[in-house]
Amino acid sequence: MKILRMLASGLVMLLVLGLVNFYIGLHLWYLLDNWLPGIRAAVYWPVFLLIAFAYLIGMVPWPKAVKPAARLFKVIGSYYLACMEFAVIVLPLTDLLYWVMGLMGAQRTGFTTEAGVTVVVLLAVFLIWGSRNAWSTVVRNHPIQIDKRAATSAPLTIAVASDLHLGNIVGNRHLRRMVAEINRMQPDLILLAGDVLDDSIEPFIRNGMSDEIRKLRARFGVYAVLGNHEYYGGSIKQYTELMDSIGIKVLQDEVAEAAGLYIVGRKDKTAESMEAAGRKSVEALLDGLDLSRPVIMMDHQPTGFGIAAQAGVDVLLSGHTHRGQIAPNHWITKRLFELDWGYLRKDKLHVVVSSGYGTWGPPIRLASRSELIRLEVRLEGTRQYSEEPVHSSPVLI
């Protein structure tokens, strides 16, 4: 029954994608036919559909001989996904304008050319600005006060990165920038809050990304948790063993101790549907801990704030949402999650949700930025901060 539901969902998704892309393709056909009279539909439609479904084609587990072509398809398809979202927003507005002009008796000669030029220029601006937001990173500073004691009374600098999505699109170049910026912070602790991989582990291994990420340096170590995309990739055992070999512990419903504080790493929420045992509750993870000491928890998807606060967690770090990545998706994520990005104080719990360092699909962001988090954690006995942390000016890298 579960398989049938998945098949039905897949068919519905393909049908919707097909209808949406037919709508986009038809408008592009009208424009090209206006600009290039005589273009053949028999040539245009196969090429358009190949591009429209390139991302899905690239995700198919092809034989080794054709994998380079599949990777190219995935890159092309990722940019098309951004263009598709842009078109879904802009084209209905264009159609509405055309219809209103007709009702008003306005002259519509040349409308296709003028509207087409306008849309193409806006698309170019969208792609250029979106690429800038995706590849130029901002560092967000969050000063946090925890009224507990640890092994040190000195402030702790904790670097946090989530949603790297390392793979065929986000590669070593972006990863090197992240490693350099985090190491410049001279952090006491580095936490990777899930989705280090973009599904498949193959490009991570092929491109030697572990050689880059192992260069992260922190006084008390580097820890990570799983995100939903590690589950989708299906190579969790291989991934965790590889990370362990380079000195990065992936916590799977586990607790580590460093600098006199607890680092709690939850399995991603996806485990509830993809693993028979699911994942442990927050209460079970904290059972037996000395809650007079600080507790920092990583949970990739930002849910269960009230439960974490009641259980005694002091800082909860999440990602997953990308803050919608491309506007106006952030309106949706804002409704889906209690906090989809930024900082929230819930009772004594400090919640920080990152928009992520990398991107899923297109390396495009609008109303969202690639970001790293720098936590300045002060413990009992040190100078108090105000309730709300203040962001410093963005640092571009």
Automatic annotation (TrEMBL):
InterPro entries noted in UniProt: Calcineurin-like_PHP (IPR004843), Metallo-depent_PP-like (IPR029052), Metallophosphoesterase_sf (IPR051158)
Residue span, Calcineurin-like phosphoesterase domain: 157-323
Transmembrane segment boundaries: 7-30, 42-60, 72-91, 111-130
MF annotations from Gene Ontology: hydrolase activity
SUPFAM superfamilies, A to Z: Metallo-dependent phosphatases
Coiled-coil ranges from the UniProt annotation: none
Keyword Transmembrane helix: yes
Keyword Hydrolase appears in the UniProt entry: no
Keywords associated with the record: Membrane, Transmembrane, Transmembrane helix
Top-level taxon: Bacteria
Protein name (database record): Phosphoesterase
Originating species: Paenibacillus graminis
